[in-house]
Specification:
- The chain is mainly α.
- It has nine helices and no strands.
- The chain has helices spanning 3-11, 19-48, 54-79, 84-93, 95-112, 116-122, 124-130, 132-147, 153-157.
Length: 158
């Protein structure tokens, strides 16, 4: 369910018995899917020869950042009430939150440096910085695997 449908569900009061869980599940799921789609662009381009796929990569990456940020904000604001003491305590105490937060922290500079101007300014360092997307992908999947308590099939597919 993309963001607009989630917003519609919130507007009409149809987010289920646990709205916080629904919001974090939807935003986290779409963030991870979009992140993995971003990572799939280069191999798919190599397999198909469709160079125009590269034009989608930045947009997919920024959408992934948007959803992951919404996921983080839903947890920090709705679950933790922006209590920074509780937020940092939870990050330190729960490994799945630690790796999720680390993934988000790594995404921030990637989103901030995704413009053509930043590519020119950073030169060869831009490519090195953006190699962090692979670590973000691994951390995002690990976050999901550690989060799930019972049926690991879906997280392991990712």
């Amino acid at each position: 369910m993309p963001f607009t449908l989630l917003a519609w569900g919130a507007a009409v009061g149809d987010l289920g018995a646990n709205p916080l869980e629904r919001v974090t599940d939807v935003t986290g799921g779409w963030g991870l899917r979009l992140l993995l789609m971003t990572l799939a662009v280069a191999p798919l381009r190599r397999l198909t020869g469709w160079n125009r796929l590269l034009n989608l990569r930045r947009m997919l990456g920024l959408f992934a950042f948007f959803y992951v940020t919404l996921h983080f904000l839903a947890w920090a604001w709705l679950d933790q009430q922006l209590s920074w003491g509780n937020i940092f305590s939870d990050i330190a105490k729960r490994p799945f939150i630690t790796v999720g937060f680390a993934a988000w922290l790594l995404l921030v500079p990637l989103a901030l440096t995704s413009t053509r101007g930043m590519m020119r300014r950073l030169g060869r360092y831009w490519q090195r910085l953006h190699q962090a997307i692979y670590a973000v992908g691994a951390l995002g999947v690990l976050h999901y695997v550690w989060l799930v308590k019972a049926d690991l099939l879906e997280p392991l597919i990712y």
